[in-house]
Amino acid sequence: MNLPNKITLSRIFLIPIFIILMSAPFEWGEIQMGDRELPIAHLAGAILFIVASTTDWIDGYIARKYNLVTNLGKFLDPLADKLLVSAALIVLVEIGLAPAWIVIFIISREFAVTGLRLVAAGEGSVLAASQMGKLKTWIQIVAISLLLLHNWPLAYIDLPLGTISLYAALIITVYSGYDYFVKNWHVMRYSK
User: Fold this and answer.
1) DSSP class of residue 154?
2) I need a labelling partner for 82 at 20 to 30 A (CA). Which of 6, 24, 114, 176 fits?
3) The pLDDT value given to residue 68
């Protein structure tokens, strides 16, 4: 259990706090942004989500710089990303900021890739996240952050970048899932 893996675990432990912050009926007031209002609970949740998401970059940087890459880290890091992103997307559906059908597609892809990783683990190999998968995660994080912030600061110019980013995340998520299965199909084909 090295430092990068501890940082990854901290990301997982922040998820329940994020869910409570976003789901509990906290009445802390609102911030006016042009003709829109941003509940302070959503601002706090967005900040916590962004902090948790940043740990993804930090743990990877430390692991590579100090040669602390482990199989546990290769497994935990993408799992932590999937748990955080899935929780945030479900919360966005609950508070009416994301369409359920997009979230279903994104989460389904995550389950499918995790299943492939489990088959690989059963065969004794670990499938690390691909560059396309990392790009997918960062686009999802940008989309979720903008939606949690109710598209601030772009709400002033009425540019729905959060929604645009969510559709971009959907496209790259589906494509990266396809790419991941094509490149790793041998795991399924030769599994016992």
Assistant:
1) G
2) 24
3) 93
Task: Give dist(CA 4, CA 68) in Å, integer.
Answer: 7
Q: Where are the alpha helices (DSSP H) in 24-160?
A: 40-65, 71-94, 100-122, 131-148
Distance from first CA to last CA of the chain, Å, rounded?
Answer: 30
| Cα-Cα-Cα-Cα dihedral sign, residues 41, 42, 45, 47 | negative
Question: Percent helix, strand and coil across the chain, each rounded to 5?
Answer: 75, 5, 20
pLDDT digits (tens, 9 = 90+) for 39-92: 999 999 999 999 999 998 999 899 999 999 988 888 888 889 889 999 999 999
Task: Give the global pTM.
Answer: 0.89
Paired with 32 in beta bridges are 37
CB 58 within 8 A of CB 37: no
Measured between alpha carbons, how far is 31 from 84 in angstroms, rounded to an integer?
A: 26
Rg from Cα positions in the chain: 18
Q: How many CB atoms lie within 10 A of CB 87?
A: 19
Which residue, among 112, 123, 122, has the nearest Cα to 78 in the 3D structure?
112
